[in-house]
Amino acid sequence: MDQDRRTFLGQTGKLLILTASAAVAWEHVLAGRPEEAPNYKVSDHWWGMAIDIEKCIGCGTCVRACKTENNVPLEAFTFRTWIERYVVDPADLDHPRVESPNGGYDGFHEREVRDPSLKMFFVPKLCNHCAHSPCVQVCPVGATFESQDGVVLVDKKYCLGCRYCVQACPYGCRFIDPRTHTVDKCSLCYHRITKGLTTACCETCPTGARVLANLKDPKDPIHAFLREHKVQVLKPQMATGSKMYYNGLDGSVR
Amino acid sequence: MKPRASDYVHLVRMAGLFVVGITAFVVLRWLMVPADFGVLGHYRAGAVTDNMQPPLVYAGQAACVECHADVAELRAKGRHVQVACESCHGALAAHASNPDGQKPVRPDPRKTCISCHSANISKPKSFPQVVPEEHAPEGSCAACHVVHNPKIS
Amino acid sequence: MPGVEGFIYPNELELQWSVLIVLYPFITGLVAGAFILASLERVFNVQAVKPTYRLALLTALAFLLVAPLPLQLHLGHPERSLEMYLTPHTQSAMAMFGFVYLWYLMVVLVLEIWLDYRRDIVLKWRASTGLSKLLYGAMALWSDNISESALRLDDRIGRALTVIGIPSAFLLHGYVGFIFGSIKANPWWSTPLMPIVFLFSAIVSGIACILLLYFATCWFRRVPVNMPCVDTIAKYLYYAFLVDFSLEMLDLIHRLYESDESFRALDFMVKTRLFTSQIVVQILLGTLVPLVLLGLAQLYTFRERARRVLYVLAGSLTLMGIFAMRWNVVIGGQLFSKSFLGYTTYKMEFATREGLLPAIVLMILPFVILWVLIRLLPPWGHDEGRRGGTRAQV
After folding, report:
1. For residue B125, which of A57, A37, C2, C249 has the smallest C-alpha distance?
2. How far is B33 from chain C (nearest CA, A)?
């Protein structure tokens, strides 16, 4: 009799513990499965962007759209995306004259001296969502990371505001949000792209100079873009694995 | 003179303090580290879902076409086919989810059209651009151009 | 835009790391340097510097206790700083440094000071009353054993700790150098020499600090300065400085020679925005003048009074120069744009969280703590108490 009771208690105990552990484990698993967001499969995506310098007109619509969509502070001089105007004298390629008035938020005024011998163009910039990101590498606590679909994101609830990542980014795309005292940067409109929409900047770009790309999708126009254009990434010597591919990026671009 | 057992007492006590400290650290870690930390990588898995939470402010072209199919048809034939509705009309997710309650403001051509089409030597040469003071110094661009299909042939 | 010259990326307008982050490597540098000086006596048996042994350890402890404070003031969310210990990112130098700091504080400094002072602590425990008695009892861990064999045991362990402590001190400040040196995005910082330059400048600053503190404490106590002691310290300061200077010159010559894409922008920055702090304060007044003064003291034997003046002057200029070096690295590294086409300015405020006032308070605080430590655990009178000398009251 005692043996049976012991066995029974043992079995029940085991069952309870296993169920409890399984429940905990399942919570764990669910927490780590953001693809519970309807219809979005993380493993089907590897995000990047195609940026065509030859099409950019420097209108600044993308800068305004980004600030609107992502609630980026307007007064502080901080930008998730911005536009730079390059004025390059072909006789002096090492010293381009560059400007970005209010990040290009209000567009660019016509130049006073209109010298047609100079080479001029606009370069939209944003977080490069590097595959080998130096900012992710230096974060001391894991508050910034590259998601499994290739987007470098910030965990605002975990960030200490130590600013090490801001120092480590070669592209200057990170900043401190003065309202939350944490780091902020382009999130590739993660809240949009995981719902089948495109980023705010790509949506509103009137010339199609910025186009969101899913490198894992064989039908995505990025593949033709990469094949048919001479593409470049910013600061390739840093080997950051940038996924923002520029067509028409002049050598003078910093 | 070899050290006796009693000579080690203070060292043992100090070692004990270290053990207490390390144990406290382990317990603290178990209590404080979020459960979903480290599941996907060295970060809080919840941060991925956090980044999915912000509300949509721009609706996206598809949402506009659902109701305004006639405009979409008109645009499809013109040079502005690649310009999203919200490029000129601004962020419209509020309107898309509450069409009658949230009516958007019609864009002012002298601001909106000019922001792209004002001549600037830095813009690509192939892009249609005019000097606003010379082209039509006053009045609305819409007076001559059908904004959704702007080319005047 | 005010304070901006040329083109900077829009997000680079304001500096990320303020004077508090300049203070941090300066303080940890003093810790490492003070410890190295102490280890000269303990491990390498340079008997002449014994009068400064305990003072150096207490100074190192006082500064190390203050070291996290500038960081806490700088963080956007200091209440989350424990995350660095709970979920450290092993690829991040900053995270791993938290553990190096903890190791150094607990195992190297606290243990070593405790073992060295234990006899005095127990004696004070026996002799005091009331709150003092409670305090000293706790510090003794309520163990009353100061027999010959126990003290010899302490001595052996203490010596082992100092031996471990030397590479730990190297690691402590070398790591801080690596925190900067590993940032490939910033050419002013990114060099394999950075940890070594930081380390040797730390040694220089620590030795100079102890030298000055020794003069100060002798003056307060109205006792004569032990000249062989300060002569030896000055000699080691000179040698360390020679190495430090050579390393910094090597970095400079390398940059000038290779002249890579960043060179022009950096060169311009040094000649304009960083001219006073780098050329005048760090190199001329903070390195060359002390080197000449200390070098002359090695070549000629000046009169005692002249030597004292010379050492105090050289030591003070050295400390100023090493602080300037930290300033030039941290602030200088943020004054130029990563586009290499422009510069911004550092607007240091006064009475804000990261302003000059907290920086001044944080620099005074270690001396206050040191004063308390000296009162609790006097570094003198029992110089010889540990090994040899008065062993009457066992």
Report:
1. A57
2. 7
Does B1 have pLDDT greater than 70? no
> Which among A46, A52, A48 has a CA at the least distance from the CA of A246?
A52
Which chain B residue has its CA at the smallest distance from A200's CA? Answer: B58
Subunits with 3+ C-beta pairs closer than 8 A to C: A, B
Question: What single string gives the DSSP state of each residue in A15-36?
Answer: HHHHHHHHHHHHHHHHHT-GGG
Q: What pLDDT score does C387 carry? A: 45
- Mean of all residue pLDDT scores within chain A: 89
Digit-coded pLDDT (tens) for A180-232? 999 999 999 999 999 999 999 999 999 999 999 999 999 999 999 999 999 99
In this structure, are strands A244-247 and A47-52 parallel, antiparallel, or unpaired?
parallel
Contacts of B104 (CB under 8 A, 6+ apart): B89, B90, B92, B95
Which residue of chain B has the CA closest to A58? B123
Per-residue pLDDT at A154: 97
ipTM of the complex: 0.91
| CB pair distance less than 8 Å for B33 and C142 | no
Instruction: Give bridge partners of residue A125 from the DSSP assignment.
Output: A82
Quote the pLDDT of residue A32. 42
Helix, strand, or coil (residue A97): strand
Tell me if C145 and B7 make a contact (CB, 8 A cut-off): yes
Integer Cα distance of C283 and A88 in angstroms? 38
User: Does A211 or B147 have the greater pLDDT score?
Assistant: A211
Catalogue all structural domains in chain A, each as residue range(s) with its CATH number: 42-247 (3.30.70.20)
- Write the pLDDT tens digit of every residue in C270-295: 999 999 999 999 999 999 999 999 99
Instruction: Show the DSSP H helices in C140-271 as ranges.
Output: 148-181, 194-221, 227-258, 263-271
Chain C CB contacts of B25 below 8 Å: 85
Which residues of B are less than 8 Å from C113 in CB distance? none
Pairwise CB contact (< 8 Å): B14 & C111: yes
